[in-house]
């Protein structure tokens, strides 16, 4: 199960433009630190794993920059930090 996820991370296109300023976005559904993030082919951002104040997380969320919203998605089989 880890190989398809690794392939997804390797196929991310590089950015050509640099943001001019920082912007506030909607808060995630699950607060997390030291998580992994990857841009998907559709422009959305997948954030997986990390940890909260109490434990290592297996949950994942997808950020949609067009709607400035987060959506919960399936959990990882194993926890990642």
Describe the strand arrangement of the main beta sheet, using strand numbers: 1-2-3-4
Number of helices: 1
- The termini sit apart by 17 Å
Radius of gyration of CA atoms, rounded to a whole number: 13 Å
Query: Major sheet, described briefly?
Result: 4 strands, antiparallel
The number of E-state strands comes to: 4
Percent of residues in beta strands: 15-25%
Q: Which series of helices and strands comes N to C? A: HEEEE
Question: Which stretches are low in confidence, meaning pLDDT under 50 for 5 or more residues running?
Answer: 1-12
General description of the model:
With 81 residues, the protein is of the alpha+beta class. 11% of the residues lie in helices and 22% in strands. It has one helix and four strands; from the N terminus they run αββββ. It has a four-stranded antiparallel β-sheet with strand order 1-2-3-4, with no helix packed on it. The protein is globular. The model is unreliable at 1-12 (pLDDT under 50).
List keywords for this structure.
alpha+beta, globular, 81 residues, four-stranded antiparallel sheet, 22% strand, disordered N terminus
Please summarize what this structure is:
The protein has 81 residues and is α+β, with helices and mostly antiparallel strands.
